[in-house]
């Protein structure tokens, strides 16, 4: 695998940070690392861009990362914080009217996604520039190639739904899950050099792993470099990062590295 540049576009939990109306210290923090848009990730491979999820701040995230073209979108699941920036995909069709961006999501989500964004799938309104030009496809259940990159998707429990986590060679991204099955730990152990994983907060959460639970998963997988993401306002980047073990840090909007 040739080098892949990974950028965390959004490192926040579903509310974003600051949280509307909140007066806590983190929500009032002037540190850029404590300012978190909703979860989304960018992979740049051989000059081609793939995004994982289209968060509500998708437009701002694309501007900040200076993304001009998009080869594909991978969706983890369709909770609002992971896909409500969907409409801004249409700008890529404005630029190039032959564009049709392949968007992959687990087959379980396709009907609900089409219902939620029904306007975009209505052939009567479908003309250049007005709608996202996408080619919605079920996520293959075997490793497949996206824009030249080998992708393995696996499923993780997340409350009432299952999310898809992705491994691209030595990099993996897992967000919005409660647990990793022992079989997956065994399968991915020693294969991952760098991983971005959700953690949300220190207190236990019903549908998400906590920071400590995610640290344990990173350690069980023997990941060399781990970044905990999808963070709430209960995590103060500069204060709490000191409590993390060596090789593990919190992620932040704009964090980027090469794998
Ligand atoms: Zn989420
Ligand atoms: Zn707050
Ligand atoms: Zn979710």
> From the coordinates shown, what is the CATH architecture?
4-Layer Sandwich
Radius of gyration: 18 Å
The CATH class is Alpha Beta
Bound molecules: zinc ion
Counting H and I runs of at least 4 residues, what is the number of helices?
7
CATH topology: Metallo-beta-lactamase, Chain A
Helix content: 10-25%
The beta-strand count equals: 14
End-to-end C-alpha gap:
9 Å
Question: How are the secondary structure elements laid out?
Answer:
Elements: E1 4-10, E2 40-45, E3 48-52, H1 58-64, E4 72-74, H2 80-83, H3 90-95, E5 101-105, H4 107-116, E6 134-138, E7 144-146, E8 149-158, E9 161-168, E10 171-174, H5 182-188, E11 194-198, H6 211-220, E12 225-229, H7 237-240, E13 248-250, E14 256-258
Parallel strand pairs: 3-4, 4-5, 5-6, 10-11, 11-12, 12-13
Antiparallel strand pairs: 1-2, 1-14, 2-3, 7-8, 8-9, 9-10
This protein binds zinc ion (ZN) (3 copies).
Fold and architecture overview:
This protein has a single domain, classed as Ribonuclease Z/Hydroxyacylglutathione hydrolase-like (Metallo-beta-lactamase, Chain A, 4-Layer Sandwich), CATH 3.60.15.10. It contains 7 helices and 14 strands. The protein has helices at 58-64, 80-83, 90-95, 107-116, 182-188, 211-220, 237-240; strands at residues 4-10, 40-45, 48-52, 72-74, 101-105, 134-138, 144-146, 149-158, 161-168, 171-174, 194-198, 225-229, 248-250, 256-258. The strands form 2 sheets. A 7-stranded mixed sheet has the order 6-5-4-3-2-1-14. Strand 9 and strand 10 (171-174) form a beta hairpin. The mean pLDDT is 95. The chain binds zinc ion (3 copies). One zinc ion (ZN) binds at residues 77, 79, 158, 176.
